[in-house]
Write a structure and sequence with these properties.
Chain lengths: 115, 115
Amino acid sequence: DQQVKQNSPSLSVQEGRISILNCDYTNSMFDYFLWYKKYPAEGPTFLISISSIKDKNEDGRFTVFLNKSAKHLSLHIVPSQPGDSAVYFCAASLYSGGGADGLTFGKGTHLIIQP
Amino acid sequence: EAGVTQSPTHLIKTRGQQATLRCSPISGHTSVYWYQQALGLGLQFLLWYDEGEERNRGNFPPRFSGRQFPNYSSELNVNALELEDSALYLCASSRLAGGTTDTQYFGPGTRLTVL
């Protein structure tokens, strides 16, 4: 049973436009959500996170929105740049009485920025 | 500040052998996490260590084990290697901030190939 789902395996966006990556989750106990960017054969790079007590967090070109009632979060990248082409992973975390437990990842969305 | 480091970069073993992978966390981080990224399966949580103790493990057999040393570095051991253990093994570290969730930062990974 996949608790974190990224239903779009790939997304193509023109340079300069907005990229919107979506993520759905099923476990209502998740209390912390993160987005990572990954290039092949490298470790994921942390992008941005959001606590379940917030509905929006912004960092430069990256904004994450959380809709708890819909169990949905999205990552907005504005404007999209060629260097943004990578696989983006949504991840969720459960507080487990002492710290962050292992993250549950979605399968990723391959973002391609077209010139 | 140095990031999470992992060694070796690549490791080739044969079925039935044992593999040992190493990880050094970011300075000041006490928690170390191990993940497996096998082809087509996404990132899956393996083990979580904090203050020298195993805090939690994912859905993996006991032949996946590890430990954390007093300097917070960690070792992942995979015994009786099977072909399907071939994967990218990623280590992440985080700082436990008074029991709240904190961001996990990933190393570059170790590519394990089992022949």
